[in-house]
Amino acid sequence: MTAPLTPPHQPPSDDPWQATPSGSHAAPGGQEPLHDTDLVAEVRQAAVVTGLLTVAGVTLGLLWLWLAPRVPLVSDDTAVFLKNSESEEAIGADGTFVLLALAFGLVSAAAVFLFRRRGGIAPVVSLALGGLLGSLLAWGIGTWFGPTSDVVAHAKEVGKGVTFDAPLELHAIGAGMLAWPIAAMAVHLGLTALFGPRDPEPEWEAGYGADRPAAGPASAPGPASGPAGGQWPDRGTTQGPKQS
């Protein structure tokens, strides 16, 4: 006798543990697989935001060049001196840059939030990176297009006793470079916490005892039955002696 041949086991087509195609994730409940299109879209949007903020650094640099106070210098053919040694123009240049960077961080964070209307890691990273690159570009534009950094040559060019502007410099480099990124991240997180979408609250089940079966209609009371199926005598009446 030979053992019966059994066909090899084949898993059913609706096996939930079957491998899904690459680039997709199995969705619960037998739904269509979820592809990575959302992740690609977020990365693309983050790259666009970073590029736009970097370009916006040109505007920040031009505003800093226009609004920053100038430091007056004067030469006597032997050395270059501050015209007013007690002036605060040098500190004013740093303060102007930091204030402008904070304003740019607020505006950029509000614009990104209005565009997306939700939080996430991608917009926060793009705001931080874009703000840092924009600040670096603004710093370079302000110092490049501002007064020349060759103070000696400029003093010889203008002549003795003639006032000229010192080069535009940023002394508080750390505060200037981090003002825009920090302000943008803080404002975006605050807007997301206040006006971002909320997760749906779980629906509470019915109250205790709601699923219990309802009691049936009460049966009408009947006469009490005795142990042998008979009825108990009425206690309200008395029986007399049996007549012969």
Structural summary, described in words:
This protein is mainly alpha-helical. It is built from 5 helices and 5 strands, in the order ββαββαααβα. It has helices at 37-67, 89-116, 121-145, 151-158, 173-195, and strands spanning 24-25, 34-35, 72-75, 80-82, 164-165. The strands form 2 sheets. A 3-stranded antiparallel sheet has the order 4-3-5, covered by helices on one side. β3 and β4 (80-82) form a beta hairpin. α2 (89-116) runs antiparallel to α3. The protein is elongated.
Query: So what's the overall shape?
Result: elongated
- Determine the N-to-C terminus distance: 94 Å
Main pleated-sheet profile:
3 strands, antiparallel
Percent of sequence in beta strands: 5-15%
- Spans with pLDDT under 50 lasting ≥5 residues? 23-34
Number of strands: 5
Helix-residue proportion:
40-55%
Query: What is the typical, i.e. mean, pLDDT?
Result: 76
Q: Structural class, please? A: mainly alpha
Topology order in helix (H) and strand (E) letters? EEHEEHHHEH
Number of helices: 5
Radius of gyration: 42 Å
Q: How is the largest sheet built, in terms of strand order?
A: 4-3-5
In short:
The chain has a domain at 55-195. It is 47% helix and 5% strand. The protein contains 5 helices and 5 strands, in the order E-E-H-E-E-H-H-H-E-H.
Q: Which helices and strands appear, and what pairs or packs with what?
A:
Blueprint: E1 24-25, E2 34-35, H1 37-67, E3 72-75, E4 80-82, H2 89-116, H3 121-145, H4 151-158, E5 164-165, H5 173-195
Antiparallel strand pairs: 1-2, 3-4, 3-5
